[in-house]
Write a structure and sequence with these properties.
The chain is an all-alpha fold and 131 residues long. Helix content is 81%, strand content 0%. The chain contains 4 helices and no strands. Keywords: Cell membrane, Membrane, Transmembrane, Transmembrane helix. This is DUF202 domain-containing protein. It is a multi-pass membrane protein. It is found in: Cell membrane.
């Protein structure tokens, strides 16, 4: 038994899995950012120094936003996977889908990255002034 358009279906599945892997990485990074203060507390105890953790709320918000972005990526991947699977199975010609949602997610992650970089720069400058 052969599957019609097998290579197209396989490519669709590989793309879906790549989206899921990326989303898991984004969510894991969000968790790391959100829990970074725990690492600093443990590091300060082992170094015998007191490290003040400023901006815990900001780090938590950025981490939470990254986790939500990762979940949105999985949802987007599921929607795209099912739409493309249906389009492959359908013998008629279809117009290309819009990529607005992809661009919105990518833009959201870029904004989060820039915000995180600014937050880290301010934290480092604050730490250099007080140290």
């Amino acid at each position: 038994m052969t599957i019609p358009h097998f290579s197209d279906h396989a490519a669709n599945e590989r793309t879906f899995l790549a989206w899921v892997r990326t989303a898991i990485a984004v969510m894991a990074f969000g968790f790391l950012v959100e829990r970074f203060d725990i690492f600093l507390k443990i590091a300060s105890k082992s170094l015998g120094k007191h490290i003040t953790v400023s901006g815990q709320v900001t780090g938590s918000l950025v981490g939470l936003a990254l986790i939500i972005a990762g979940a949105a990526m999985v949802l987007t991947a599921m929607i795209r996977f099912t739409r493309i699977r249906s389009a492959i199975a359908d013998e008629t010609t279809h117009e290309a889908e819009g990529d607005k949602l992809d661009l919105v997610l990518a833009g959201f992650i870029v904004v989060l990255g820039i915000g995180l970089a600014i937050y880290l720069a301010i934290t480092m400058l604050h730490g250099a002034k007080s140290g």
